[in-house]
Specification:
Bound molecules: guanosine-5'-diphosphate
CATH topology of the largest domain: Rossmann fold
CATH superfamily of the largest domain: P-loop containing nucleotide triphosphate hydrolases
Strand content: 5-15%
Distance between the termini: 46 Å
Number of domains: 3
CATH architecture of the largest domain: 3-Layer(aba) Sandwich
Mean pLDDT: 85
Strand order of the largest sheet: 3-2-4-1-5-6-7
Helix content: 55-70%
Shape: globular
Length: 358
Amino acid sequence: MSKQKKSSLQEKKGVSISEITNRSSIKSIQNKRKVKIDTVALVSSILKKDITALSRAITLVESKNPKHKEQANNVLKACLPHANKSIRIGITGVPGVGKSTFIETFGKHLTKLGKRVAVLAIDPSSTITKGSILGDKTRMEDLVKDKNAFIRPSASGDSLGGVARKTRESIILCEAAGFDVIIIETVGVGQSETTVHSMVDFFLLLKLAGAGDELQGIKRGIIEMADTIAINKADGGNLKNAKLAKVEFARALHLYPEKSSNWQPKVTLCSALHSEGINTIWDIILEYIEITSKNNFFDKKRHNQNKFWLIQTIEDQLKSDFFNKPKIKKELANQIQLIENNQTTPFAAADYLLNLNN
Ligand code: GDP
């Protein structure tokens, strides 16, 4: 369109160029303000325990859109002073052990005690299956209807680190929304148990009684992480085996050196289906909190977890920034080719790529 035509059109509409410029800048200010107001409104609603606002904030945290990331960071910053007041419990166990049945029963037990319970999940496999198998609302039908409970399926992400970061940030949001107990569920895929362990106060391992070889096939390290082992499905014809398993696990736990928390991990029986042994587990958790609060381990652990996540987040970010650079992507392929042709070593190639990045 020629300049003349454009200005005559504007004249007809009675709008000048400067007015258009003014309008667009007003619009941009309004947009900026809108985001600002939204953030403030969102935080204020979260603090008023508004579940819809909490869900929206978690969706922001999970978003890959850079604009959302900025807003999510603002929301998190504003929520942080109101966080940290919950008990964070990690729950793990093989598929079928009864995690969701347990969380439903345990969650209901807590809401009856007047607690507000949030259930989050870390499920790295949901990245592959594109759906979440954990924290699935249909698996906790009663709890999901409870107004004092909030259930959020696992975030999806490119990596366990990505999923973990989102869950960690969601913990802050749930705490700001006044949840007293945050349950993080995971299944033993890859490093997911270690990841959950690094963000909770208390780690509960659910086990099944087997045929007397309970310790066979158990992942190394998992016993060391557990603050309590609960043998689930201790009911009906299974009760006898469960009691035997309890003895075996208790014996095994005594072989481990004492923890710096001064906490001696416990083994207990429960039936999530029949709601048996559930109050005992809650009592154990309260005892743990009391002991570790008195000897300062509780605060020290959270402090160390924060330090760990700071370093972890920086490492993840640096790594993804590096590998996402087009120059690096291209040269990485070249260097791999050179390594395959024995024309360079992996170390020289790494030096070359890292220098290229500087
Ligand atoms: P998850 O895969 O670990 O979440 O396990 P689920 O909670 O889905 O439970 C798997 C199956 O075990 C379901 O059919 C449950 O009804 C059953 N189950 C869970 N807890 C108990 C229990 O305490 N006793 C018995 N007998 N069955 C249970």
